[in-house]
Amino acid sequence: MKTFITKSPKLNTLILCDNNFNKYFLDSIAEALREKNNIKYLSFCHSQIDGDKFKSLLPIFYAPLPSQKEKKEKEEKNEIKDKKEKKLDKKEIVERKSNPNLHLEELDLSCNSLGYSGIETLSNALKINTTIKKLNLFHNLFDVNGARRIGDVLKINKTIEELDIGYNRIKNAGFKYIISALKENQNLNLKILGLKYNFINDKVLDEQMTIIENAENIKLEEIYLKNNSLSSGFLQKYWEGKFTKMKKQIKTDIFDFLAFMTPEKLDRTIWIPNIEEPKKSDFMAEIEVCERDCVKSEGSHVGIPLFMRKKRGRKTGKKKENIAKNIFIEFIMPNSANRMLKLASTSKFIINGKLKKIFKAGTKPDYLVVKKKIEK
After folding, report:
1. Residues 32 and 5 sit within 8 Å (Cβ to Cβ)
2. Fewer CB atoms near the end CB (10 Å): N or C, the chain?
């Protein structure tokens, strides 16, 4: 592996995903990247790397210690009988020099098990790193304490532009620390921040977005906050009352659902309970049948569907159930939705031999707690 990496000048991407590497293999990768190389993108996603295994990758970030210093450390080690292994404390790690052969710009460690120990080790390395621009730590089993260590890096880091720490239970306290760290760094370059699945609530989001708006040095362009503890009522009020009036134009994903809540879209959209989850083609075939019936009985057309989307969710208040599998159909013209409702009321909308009910979009909200998007 070392020969392959160091002797391949055109090799700039190394993807080592979906594996269970042992320490010996990780050692070989680290030693190879310590030598002269051109790797700019490195991915270990889904590779079962925990905090202990991650220590094998440390040579990637650090230059070798000078020989004189190594001799001195050996002498000090011999003087202390109780120590069996040499362990660098935090101050010593920060004092070490960055690897001059490292050109890595994007590091993907998503879906591993770094935990707090791995995050602490990584954060110490990142304090001296000046090459990494994109860092993905999505789903790595750390909490607010891990967020604090990442925050310590963000206080001084000048190069990271994209950071994803979603699905890590950093909660409100971790979110606060991250934003506080960003506020302290006058040379901050972070533009994209991922915070999905972190139990962030309405009040804290409101507070921290105000800080982001008022801090001149924070230049965030995108924040991803879906699947946190944010209520739809708060999001709609916040969108109308504050977010649209912010001076900073920050892109975020938590207001996507509002695009489907405009009166124009609601007027021309229907939704259908879809417990059996038939294929979209079945719905399209039945809409064609309805079209023929409508032309025959009324001399008018149902209309053309603009888009059709399946979503899986649950009934409000029934967290253990996951039975609501609905399909949303938006037509080009509002009259199409009304005609579909009329046909359903006369028992003329049948999918796979079963009569289907049709509802106007925006009604029956007990079915609209969306858990996962099935198909676009």
Report:
1. yes
2. C
